[in-house]
Amino acid sequence: MLSPRVRGQAFFDDSVNSERRVQTLSREKREYIRFTSVKRKKDFVHGEGFGARTYLKKKRCECASDGVILLSVILLAGHSCGGASISYAFECCPKKISKAVFVCATMVSDGQKPFDVFAEEIGSAEMFVQESQLLVYGNGQDKPPTSLRFDKQQTKGLYFNQTPSKDVALATVSMRPIPLEPIMEKLSLTPANYGTSRRFFVQTLDDHALSPDVQEKLVRDNPPAGVFKIKGSDHCPFFSKPQSLHKTLLEIAQIP
């Protein structure tokens, strides 16, 4: 059973949402208040190697670096391998979650590993572990690998091909090795729990890490309630197309 850590915090203090104060704010901040004052809690789960900074650009969103806490009826958004975490959360607490948003994420089916989503492009998990030169053996060389380091020379082309250079510099400095256990274990997802979820998928159409063809296959194999597309976005729309991503999340949050 996959056991990703699921922790987090609330995003917005409703006390700021007074008519007088909203009128004095910029258009961008007023739009942010519209998103955060929808009467549900919103939480964001970052993808592999990323942290809380992922969601800071222009949206002013706060994010817990390890995921989300399920305290009330909430909307979850997961990026990349963070899709496995929100799937697991839905399986555990289906009545606590209003909607799940997969942002170019691993929207897997029952019995799948999150790694399986990438298998068509990079090969099987077994072959990957045997051939990769970037594995970290945190428990010793005689034990299975524990995480995967990023090749920073390849990262820009895979993750940030449409991202401004200053954001690439910040992101690459901040990225950390990817824990292997959560992405190599199969998820057990049941119709009674995960099957009741209202899922939405956000496709990134200039994505070199999770290609548009693979994203289309995810949608066909595991149909969500809705699909949204962001043109000109690489694998990290919070850097390359933050305003489009914000608009999309707002639209999904307001769906009855």
Automatic annotation (TrEMBL):
GO terms for biological process: jasmonic acid metabolic process; salicylic acid metabolic process. Gene3D superfamilies: alpha/beta hydrolase. GO terms for molecular function: methyl indole-3-acetate esterase activity; methyl jasmonate esterase activity; methyl salicylate esterase activity. Residues 74-243 form the AB hydrolase-1 domain. Pfam families: Abhydrolase_6. InterPro entries: AB_hydrolase_1 (IPR000073), AB_hydrolase_fold (IPR029058), MES/HNL (IPR045889). PANTHER family: METHYLESTERASE 14, CHLOROPLASTIC-RELATED (PTHR10992:SF785), METHYLESTERASE FAMILY MEMBER (PTHR10992). This is AB hydrolase-1 domain-containing protein.
